[in-house]
Amino acid sequence: MKKFSTAALAIALASSFGSAFAAGEPAMNNPRCAFLQNAPDQHTVVRGDTLWGISGRFLQNPWCWPQVWGMNKEEIRNPHLIYPGQIVYFDRVAGRLRLGSPVGSGAAGQDGRGIQTVKLSPQLRTEGLGQEAVPAIPSNVIEPFLSQPLIVGEGDLSDAPRIVATQESRVMLGKDDKAYVRGAINSGTSFQVFRPGTPLRDPETNAVIGYEAAYLGTIKLERPARAEDEAHVFNVVNVKQEMAVGDRLLPVPPTPMLNYVPHPPEKEVSARIVSVYGGVTQAGQNQIVSVNRGRKDGIDMGTVLELYRFGPVISDRTDKGSFWSFGPWGRKQVKLPDTQYGSLFIFRVFDSISYGLVMQVTDTVQVGDVAKSPE
Questions:
Q1: How far is Cα 305 from Cα 342, in angstroms, rounded to an integer?
Q2: Is 32 helix (H, G, I), strand (E, B) or coil?
Q3: CA–CA distance, 105 with 9 (Å, rounded to integer)
């Protein structure tokens, strides 16, 4: 395949894109954001692609996506989206990825010297993620977690509407059962049901930093209360876990906009894995974990952190020091370096806690592991 690197083509690429991607340091100046040696000249976007997957075809680290596109902070948060059928070109001269149409697609021409050029059409769309736009990561994996589970503070659900009785005094409610609810529903009709859940403790301080409310399902209003001392009647629409008296209701949130780009945090972040969703202690690729850093620590949607396993502290068996100088074993203690083994993509952020999707890993993720800014 002919390399996409002629001077004339580079000029055409730069001029057609204007200043939209002019800012930013070229990727070749940052070793961590280097292109793969076997990176292709181009990639045609197809249905099922993700920004993470596309960037992984070209880059050693997919979180370098904003840098090689020359995106600024605002463009990261409100990105220029990519759609199936478009072509991502590798501009080897500028050390950039570019978006455009293939030669012969009606966008190509000649520059007057008989040299064929490519006219690019960025097709910038900033209203949010269209139905056909390429998502940052596999959306089907994280969609259930965009509205649940829920991180709450102590007492945050205490004033929420609550189930006070069940149909025919059943202990548990299932699909199509009736639930009787008290509390202010404020003209709402569709609600999610939660149960105050497990406290989440900071691995560093052991302090409770939030509670993960268990998502149980959704219910829909059948008949509102007609008097102040009467209960609302709800019908159970779907059930993830059985509902019971005392469970709390929150309005169904609007469908989230998945318009984010993988990027490193703006400032240095060092976090710890708080929990693995599902109550287990280890996670693998495409599983959900929480970390003890959030919005107040500079983390936002799309932040990428690298996962590290703490290096153990060992006794230096080669040391011949005295018992009195170096402890009961007579040897110095040596801390081995932490081992980087994967990456974490943050997709939901609370004040002090965030949820992330485990991306490529070479080891299992364990509670207490380190998640920090890419170096």
A1: 9
A2: helix
A3: 16
Query: What's the token pair of residue 103?
Result: 């030669």
Q: What is the mean pLDDT of residues 295-304?
A: 92
CA distances from 203 to 234, 274, 291, 293, 308 (A): 40, 6, 9, 11, 15
The string of pLDDT tens digits covering residues 220-263 is 999 999 998 999 999 999 998 889 999 999 988 776 656 678 89
Amino acid occupying residue 161: P
What are the residue boundaries of the structural domains of the chain, listed by start?
Answer: 7-137, 150-251, 270-372
Residue 169 carries which DSSP code? G
Tokens of 10: 């580079």
Q: What angle do CA 65, 67, 70 make, to 5 degrees?
A: 110
Cβ-based neighbours of 48, under 8 Å, separated by 6 or more: none
Confidence of residue 170 (pLDDT cuts 50, 70, 90): confident
Confirm or reject CATH 2.40.160.20 for domain 270-372, answering yes or no. Answer: no
Distance, in Å, from the CA atom of 102 to the CA atom of 105, rounded to the nearest integer, reads 6
CB 289 within 8 A of CB 349: no
The bridge status of strand 208-223 relative to strand 248-251 is: unpaired
